[in-house]
Amino acid sequence: MRVMGIDCGSEYTGFGVVEDDAQAHLHCRTAGAVRLNARDPLEAKLAIIYRELCAVIREFEPEIVAIEDVFYAVNAKSALKLGHVRGVAMLAVAECGLRVAAYAPLAVKSAVVGYGKAEKCQVQAMVARLLNLPSLPEPPDVADALAIAICHLHTSATQSRMRAKA
């Protein structure tokens, strides 16, 4: 299965495409971040995110896209900006004809690190280890996107095993 993970952010929107093979080994197909200029108006930033994510989806052809679920933020303005970015990311996915699977941040960290309140550096280290990367994914948003994709692959594998037993 080939999964694209997206970590939405108003400065960096991370993305990563991860694939598992017949032996359940994970492979990173691509990873990066859409870097946004803080001085650009919001609508310009959203258009850039939309175009970049559509381009990655078309090039790497994931079967599904995994994204972090909505969470509650202390700062309402930041949460609103993040909601805009998340909506545009979901629109890009839908326009490309794919489904979105959403995961809570605690579930993502648990799937990758084994602890739902893991620090960013722990997520980066485990993602690098699981994908056999030569260095830590930077910026951390890239590691988060890869972690979201890994979470979906692990969750799907578990669900498949449970269906097979039933």
Question: What does it look like?
Answer:
Helices cover 51% and strands 20% of the residues. By secondary structure, it is of the alpha/beta class. It has a single domain (2-165), classed as Nucleotidyltransferase, domain 5 (2-Layer Sandwich). Strands 3-2-1-4-5 form a 5-stranded mixed β-sheet. The longest helix has 26 residues, at 140-165. The model has no long low-confidence stretch (mean pLDDT 93).
Helix and strand layout, with pairings?
Layout lengths: L1 E6 L4 E9 L5 E10 L6 H19 L3 E5 L7 H20 L4 E4 L1 H8 L7 H11 L9 H26 L1
Parallel strand pairs: 1-4, 4-5
Antiparallel strand pairs: 1-2, 2-3
Helix pairs in contact: 1-2, 3-5, 4-5
Structural class: alpha/beta
Return residue spans where pLDDT drops below 50 for at least 5 consecutive residues.
Answer: none
Count of DSSP H/I helices:
5
Oligomer: single chain
Give the helix level as a range of percent: 40-55%
Instruction: Give the SSE order as H and E letters.
Output: EEEHEHEHHH
What is the global morphology? globular
- Looking at CATH, the homologous superfamily is Ribonuclease H-like superfamily/Ribonuclease H
CATH class: Alpha Beta
Question: What descriptive keywords fit this protein?
Answer:
single chain; 166 residues; alpha/beta; Nucleotidyltransferase, domain 5; five-stranded mixed sheet; 5 helices
Quick structural gist:
The chain is of the alpha/beta class and 166 residues long. Helices cover 51% and strands 20% of the residues.
